[in-house]
């Protein structure tokens, strides 16, 4: 094959989204995601249902990604897949498919850390002349349902976690508070929508005092719960009457906690290029805080497109592309893993 192109198929199945993407020479050709509505009735992701849905979705999603990219499977250079962290049953569907597909095509297999993928989403190019990427070293605030961490990114394969949550993640805290308010699952988008109409200074909730760059959100959650319980005693319809202000105040508190540590990390390292990634980076309040910090502290900020904030295969494919250039492949016997942080 005289073709010099590097064409990577990325597969993501860590939680409840089945996604496949094709990247050629660093440029995204397609990114297809099938979401699972089945979990809404249960107020959270049910692992067994998630893995069954992945089994139904994986073949059509990969097929669509190749079709939309206009790429034949024989043109693929390698298959990159999310190896972890995530739900074991969900991961196994993507991992098994990737292994079988790569073996059938006789091409290399590349394992990707899901969290590293979120950070590297900033390097997805949508066209040849898309040059809006952070330069190394940069700081990345990675905030999702399962993770909240400040990462110093020295190279695509050299990341240092400066601080992380010691209990709940920011996304988890939002989801749990939303559940208490009876707003349904997932809570993030609902809280985000309501917060836009509310007063962020209407209520104050406990903020943790944790040393260094680490985070804690369990105290905030408890404070929110107890405050709500007291208010409901006086007015049983309190939530209905004040949900916009409650959402705005909750969001404001979480954003404050996140930004305070990030400001400190930026100050201590002297790094002015600062990115945000992960599911919670879709939050309007957090995005605005980043813009305010850019204006105030002279940061150069990187905020991902909405389609790259949630779990998606484009971030897996771009990570796979960088690893391919280094010929960093994995064996077919590599198992999935459910829990791990960035190295």
What can you tell me about this protein's structure?
By secondary structure, this protein is α/β, with parallel strands linked by helices. It has 2 domains: 7-130 and 308-325, ATPase, nucleotide binding domain (Nucleotidyltransferase, domain 5, 2-Layer Sandwich), CATH 3.30.420; 138-306, Nucleotidyltransferase, domain 5 (2-Layer Sandwich). 42% of the residues lie in helices and 19% in strands. The chain contains 9 helices and 10 strands. The chain has helices at residues 47-69, 88-105, 114-120, 170-180, 187-195, 218-234, 238-269, 284-297, 313-325, and strands at 7-12, 17-24, 27-35, 78-84, 109-113, 138-143, 148-155, 158-164, 273-277, 300-302. Strands 3-2-1-4-5 form a 5-stranded mixed β-sheet, with helices on both faces. Helix 4 (170-180) packs parallel to helix 6, helix 4 (170-180) packs antiparallel against helix 7 (238-269) and helix 7 (238-269) runs parallel beside helix 8 (284-297). It is globular, with a radius of gyration of 21 Å. The two termini are 36 Å apart. The mean pLDDT is 94.
């Amino acid at each position: 094959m005289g073709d010099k192109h590097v064409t990577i198929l990325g597969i993501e199945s860590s939680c409840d989204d089945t996604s496949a993407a094709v990247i050629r020479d660093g440029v995204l050709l397609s990114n297809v995601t099938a979401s699972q509505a089945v979990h809404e009735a249960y107020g959270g992701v049910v692992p067994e249902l998630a893995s069954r849905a992945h089994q139904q979705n994986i073949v059509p999603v990969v097929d669509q990604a190749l079709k939309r990219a206009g790429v034949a499977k024989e043109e693929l250079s390698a298959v990159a897949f999310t190896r972890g962290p995530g739900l074991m049953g969900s991961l196994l569907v993507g991992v098994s498919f990737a292994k079988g597909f790569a073996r059938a095509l006789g091409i290399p297999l590349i394992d990707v850390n899901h969290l590293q993928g979120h950070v590297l989403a900033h390097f997805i190019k949508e066209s040849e002349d898309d040059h809006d990427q952070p330069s190394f070293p940069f700081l990345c605030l990675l905030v999702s349902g399962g993770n909240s961490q400040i990462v110093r990114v020295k190279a695509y394969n050299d990341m240092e976690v400066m601080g992380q949550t010691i209990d709940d993640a920011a996304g988890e805290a939002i989801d749990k508070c939303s559940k208490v308010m009876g707003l349904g699952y997932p809570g993030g988008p609902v809280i985000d929508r309501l917060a836009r109409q509310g007063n962020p200074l209407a209520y104050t909730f406990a903020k943790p005092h944790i040393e260094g760059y680490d985070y804690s959100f369990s105290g905030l959650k408890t404070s929110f719960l107890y405050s709500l319980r007291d208010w409901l005693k006086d007015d049983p319809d309190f939530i209905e009457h004040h949900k916009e202000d409650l959402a705005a105040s909750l969001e404001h508190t979480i954003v404050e906690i996140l930004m305070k540590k990030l400001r400190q990390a930026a100050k201590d390292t002297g790094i002015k290029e600062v990115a945000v990634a992960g599911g919670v980076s879709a939050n309007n309040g957090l995005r605005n805080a980043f813009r305010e910090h850019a204006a105030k502290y002279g940061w150069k900020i990187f905020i991902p497109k909405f389609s790259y904030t949630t779990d998606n295969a484009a971030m897996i494919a771009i990570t796979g592309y960088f690893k391919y250039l280094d010929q960093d492949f994995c064996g077919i016997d590599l198992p999935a893993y459910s829990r791990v942080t960035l190295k």
